[in-house]
Automatic annotation (TrEMBL):
Domain of life: Bacteria
PANTHER family in alphabetical order: XANTHINE/URACIL PERMEASE C887.17-RELATED, XANTHINE_URACIL PERMEASE C887.17-RELATED
Protein known as: AGZA family xanthine/uracil permease-like MFS transporter
GO molecular-function term, one example from the UniProt record: purine nucleobase transmembrane transporter activity
Keyword Membrane: yes
One CC-aspect GO term: plasma membrane
Length: 457
């Protein structure tokens, strides 16, 4: 890491003007005060962008399964990533990328639209209302009460379960796992497509292990190149077809959100699950980054936490009118932090790097499903990291956590996994005489889970 506590404004001499931040940048972002330099902050922004730019391709690919046109979803992805990262840099002044998150897009597409049968416009309405609720929580700073209500084991389990679900989707998109009348699922045909996916997966894994900046996007590019001859030199289907280099942005999904249509009691559990997932993802990301880079205030809390959570809520609200699932903080921001990034100038750099991709929809549409599948599998792997933090020795914690993890991929629903995790936790505590360990918010969560199951029938 390039950060050094000994680097102070006084250390910057006339011999090193190229690394000294411009006065207004230094004053606004506090670059020198944080022991950083203009060059370090910009390089950190580039590193984070490379680590997270896979979302430019993967998010439209996921949302297109819900019926949103790829080009419109791509424009929405770029716009929300630019606006929310810019807000994170200028308002919260933290070195954090904000963009449509994996998990939230899977919940949107595969649970709300394909699973529950909502139109994508109504599903966007649910995204909007979850953002409104998030904003209220951020405004009144009630995070502590909510944090204490949800047990750590369930919070870790939900992250892991979403990871397994995303991996399952990636394996399906690649044709690695297919349906079976006898066993429900089975291995797909060992053909050129499957071989291309597997080579891409291994190569992407190697890039990650070697800690290459932009490992996932490198894997997507390589797998696309490997798939280019399919249907031409081998295989039956042409997967990569040239549609041009650039085009004007497609704003076809902008303001298509059905805000009033989402105001139904039956949709309340979906809104709550979106709120819960986004809220805790944001909070856990801020906590992790503050610990790894000492981004803390004088009280030891994550720096500018209230402002950062407000930006995250803002990003969730405006994502829906733009035509995409909720945006959230990216743990990939750690790539820039590891490069020495400490201020909002990192997020500002990230925001500006997104803009050119607004005009590259034809080029990015080259990417076939099997090329984004390795990235989905590895994102799922990354999200499995908290599984070791679950207390597996105490069954009152382990059983609800296990149900939440395993039911998400097996029921093909993030919402159902969370619902059974909450309900089982409350029932186990109540039936073993530990009612006092159930916080009010958990009772409400369990009640919403029951409501969702009853109304879904």
């Amino acid at each position: 890491m390039q950060h050094s506590s000994s680097a102070r404004p006084a250390d910057v001499t006339a011999d090193t003007p190229q690394t000294a931040p411009a006065p207004w940048l230094d004053t606004y972002f506090g670059v020198s005060r944080r022991g950083s330099t203009l060059k370090t902050e910009i390089l950190a922004g580039i590193a984070t962008f490379l680590a997270g730019m896979y979302i430019i391709v993967v998010n439209p690919a996921v949302l297109s399964d819900a019926g949103i046109p790829f080009s419109a979803a791509l424009s929405a992805t770029v716009l929300i990533s630019f606006m929310s990262s810019l807000a994170m840099g200028l308002y919260a002044r933290n070195p954090i990328l904000v963009a449509p998150g994996m998990g939230m897009n899977a919940l949107f597409t595969y649970t709300l639209v394909l699973g529950a049968g909502l139109t994508w416009q109504v599903a966007l309405g649910c995204v909007f209302w979850s953002g409104v609720m998030f904003a209220v929580l951020a405004l009144f700073n009630v995070r502590r009460a909510i944090i204490e209500a949800i047990p750590l084991s369930l919070r870790y389990a939900i992250t892991c379960g979403i990871g397994l679900f995303i991996t399952f989707i990636g394996l399906q998109n690649a044709g690695f796992i297919v349906g079976s009348d006898a066993t429900l699922v089975t291995l797909g045909n060992m053909d050129a497509s499957l071989a291309t996916f597997f080579i891409g997966l291994v190569a992407t894994g190697v890039f990650v292990i070697l800690r290459f900046n932009g490992a996932l996007i490198m894997g997507i590019a390589l797998t696309t190149l490997l798939a280019a001859p399919m249907g031409r030199l081998w295989g039956d289907e042409v997967m990569v077809a040239w549609n041009g280099l650039a085009a004007w942005p497609d704003f076809g999904a902008v303001m298509q959100v059905d805000i009033l249509g989402a105001l139904k009691v039956v949709y309340l559990p979906f809104i709550f699950v979106m709120l819960f997932t986004n809220f805790f993802d944001a909070l856990s990301c801020f906590m992790a980054l503050s610990e790894s880079a000492d981004l803390k205030d004088q009280d030891g809390n994550p720096r500018n936490l209230k402002r950062s959570m407000t930006v995250d809520a803002f990003a969730s609200m405006i994502a829906a009118p733009l035509g995409t699932s909720a945006a959230q903080t990216f743990i990939e921001s750690g790539a820039g932090v590891a490069q020495g990034g400490r201020t909002g100038l990192v997020a500002l750099t990230i925001a500006l790097l997104f803009l050119p991709f607004l005009f590259l929809s034809p080029l990015l549409s080259l990417v076939p499903g099997i090329a984004t599948a390795p990235a989905l599998v590895l994102v799922g792997l990354f999200m499995m990291a908290p599984i070791g933090k679950i207390d597996w020795q105490h069954f009152d914690q382990a059983l609800p956590a296990f149900l939440a993890i395993i039911l998400m991929p097996l029921t093909y629903s993030i919402t159902l996994g969370i619902a059974f995790g909450f309900m089982s936790f409350v029932l186990i505590k109540a039936l073993t005489g530990r009612v006092g360990e159930i916080k009010p918010a958990m009772w409400v969560s369990a009640a919403l889970s029951v409501l969702m199951l009853v109304t879904a029938q």
